[in-house]
Amino acid sequence: MNAPTTSLRAGPDANGHFGQFGGRYVAETLMPLILDLEKAYTEAKADPAFHAELDDLLKHYVGRPSPLYFAERLTAELGGAKVYLKRDELNHTGAHKINNCIGQILLARRMGKTRIIAETGAGQHGVATATVAARFGLPCTIYMGARDIERQAPNVFRMKLLGAEVKAVESGSRTLKDAMNEALRDWVTNVHDTFYIIGTAAGPHPYPELVRDFQTVIGKEARAQILEREGRLPDLLVASIGGGSNAIGLFHPFLDDDGVRIVGIEASGKGLDTHEHAASLAGGRAGVLHGNKTMLLQDEDGQITEAHSISAGLDYPGIGPEHAWLHAIGRVEYQSATDSDALEGFKLLCRTEGIIPALEPSHALAAVARIAPTMGKDQIIIANLCGRGDKDIFTVAAALGVVM
Amino acid sequence: MSADRLSARFAACAAANRAALVTFVTAGDPDLATSAEILAALPAAGADVIEIGMPFTDPMADGPAIQRGNLRSLAAGTTLRKVLAMVRDFRASDDATPIVLMGYFNPILAFGPERFATEAKAAGIDGCIVVDLPPEEAGELVPALTSHGLHLVRLATPTSDAQRLPAVLSGASGFLYYVAVAGVTGANSAAATDVATAVARLKAATDLPIAVGFGVRTPEQAAAIAAHADAVVVGSAIVDAIGAAAEERANDIPARVSAQVAALARAVHNARQEKAA
């Protein structure tokens, strides 16, 4: 492997930009706090004690490393490349979100913050945040769109069991973007004592960088695991993308490996031609929302349009700025899967492997089902199975016309 | 009219030893025609400077009142182009009252910073406040504004400590907007003593006029701040009143807003005399 002269893993720059994307587009009230956070994170990164505590919690509390599983029957069914699944759905709380939450709550404690807030879409990040808040004994408020509360009832109950206050957000489309607006409003009001645990690799710098860093444990493990198992790097990586934290976590350690093709899967909802989708790269333009410049679904006047996906976790009109940049420079290829593609991917994994996936990685599985048959049997795919599907069984039942 | 309505107006208020009243309304709220009438009546009611909100779907720094105002305006079909046209119409009868646009960066970015600056200047805008564009990110807008003689008004907040303040003040022009409480618009009020301390601290660092806003709702609150600051900004209380009137389908919304603004103006304009008396 030749090391490229310019690493694609070096970003962001000192001001938090990935090419033209990223940055710190926040109200002035938040700027000193954002700068403090950046300083605290820089110090933490250089502190072996921080890493030791993080690694210990990831091993004994989260259950890492997660297995890299050879999906033998899925591979046989698709009749092409060997499909490996990175089993982040086996983490404590059932998704990759906890990797980041553990890291951020350690930062919050380092900064002396005594109250935690977060936004959540599917509820996985809310559950993970409520979990670490309980583990560290900090009060926690989770903002969740009222529409998402309706379709993710089990996670709402989990968060409450864990002691979090769940606030329903009734504004706008009543989904993830509105929950993020409301969390930002809470934060700007309570800057003195509150730490905002952002759940995806988006938002103002340094969030895209630190969320990515905490999620790259996925890709670092996968890289070591596949080298041990197959003695070589994979030919293809596949992950689903809403904000893109699971995807950047898998992709980032492989960005400089030229032979590894990388594909991110956006949610195209009812179809890219319908306006009811969440594919901000395929159907969006560069803009500024939620503290960063990135690709956004918006109308010609710069008003943000509503996203749609069967998966509450992908139902967001933007994407992390590093993905916007990787898309612009062409290093990562972005494709999409519709609601019905995702349902097929969901059923396929249940049937062939005895694993019920979340609807988010079901989009990635749909892409694997599409791509694997076109590849040789000696080729290798790693797909990120970033969440388990227990939370989605009601949504899937409704989509399949089953009354429970 | 002079190229700088803002400095002329602040100088006139200072000469009269009174604070200026800055009123905020969202353009196109509850609809463009009513909004234009409200705007036209503001100077006579006593508004010294007018801030006009450019509506945005995701106003992260605003509380419920202005969020609803934004949604009413967007539902009525307001666009940035129509906002600029409304100001151009206003200027036909008033070439003295400074007008500052306030909003979020994305609609400006979509419009194009250079085109925005050109058309805003032509419409008679004096400056703008872009809530989610801190000095670190302002490079995409400042050159366009500067080349057209438009001010980019900066915001100082309770979190602007001695370390941060120089960044805020570097390149600030027009006036300095002091956000009196850490929070969203329409939140709780700051204590008058805290405001007095903050204004004194800012005055020591800049010669720009200091306008204080966020959480100022009543004539009494406005008067308490007018005793110390160069200007007092009232927004959510007016937008709330517009919302309530729109809700009951009132046909006298401009008159109601004028009465509310007149009461605020009396309090603000007389605050220093009454304090001295």
Structure characteristics:
heterodimer, A: 404 residues, alpha/beta, 6-stranded mixed β-sheet, 4-stranded antiparallel β-sheet, 14 strands, globular, B: 277 residues, TIM Barrel, 9-stranded parallel β-sheet, 12 helices, 49% helix
Architecture overview:
- The complex is a heterodimer of chains A (404) and B (277).
- Chain A is α/β, with parallel strands linked by helices.
- Chain A contains 16 helices and 14 strands.
- Chain A has helices spanning 31-45, 48-62, 72-78, 97-110, 124-136, 146-151, 153-161, 176-189, 207-215, 217-230, 245-251, 280-283, 321-329, 339-353, 359-371, 393-399, and strands at residues 17-18, 21-25, 68-70, 82-86, 115-120, 140-145, 165-169, 194-196, 236-241, 261-267, 285-289, 291-296, 333-337, 380-384.
- Chain A starts with 16 loop residues before the first strand and ends in a 5-residue tail after the last helix.
- In chain A, the strands form three sheets. In chain A, strands 3-4-14-9-10-13 form a six-stranded mixed beta sheet, with helices on both faces. In chain A, strands 1-2-12-11 form a four-stranded antiparallel beta sheet.
- In chain A, a hairpin with a 2-residue loop joins strand 1 (17-18) and strand 2.
- By secondary structure, chain B is of the alpha/beta class.
- Chain B has one domain: Aldolase class I (TIM Barrel), CATH 3.20.20.70.
- Chain B has a nine-stranded parallel beta sheet.
- The mean pLDDT of chain B is 95.
- Chain A binds chain B through residues 15, 23-33, 35, 171-172, 177-178, 181, 184-185, 188-192, 285-291, 296, 298, 300-304, and chain B through 56-63, 67, 74, 79-80, 104-111, 131-134, 136-137, 154-161, 163-164, 167-168, 179, 182-184, 187.
Give a quick summary of the entry:
By secondary structure, chain A is α/β, with parallel strands linked by helices. In chain A, 42% of the residues lie in helices and 17% in strands.
Major sheet strand order of chain B: 5-4-3-2-1-9-8-7-6
The largest chain-to-chain contact, stated as pair and per-chain residue counts, equals: A-B, 39 and 43 residues
Q: Beta-sheet strand percentage of chain B?
A: 5-15%
Return residue spans of chain A where pLDDT drops below 50 for at least 5 consecutive residues: none
Tell me the number of strands of chain B.
Answer: 9
Mean pLDDT across the residues of chain B is 95
CATH class of chain B: Alpha Beta
Global morphology of chain A: globular
Main structural class of chain B: alpha/beta
Number of helices of chain B: 12
Number of domains of chain B: 1
Going by CATH, the architecture of chain B would be Alpha-Beta Barrel
How confident is the prediction overall: mean pLDDT of chain A?
96
Order of helices and strands of chain B: HEHEHHEHHEHEEHEHEHEHH
CATH superfamily of chain B: Aldolase class I
Q: What characterizes the major β-sheet of chain B?
A: 9 strands, parallel
Number of helices of chain A: 16
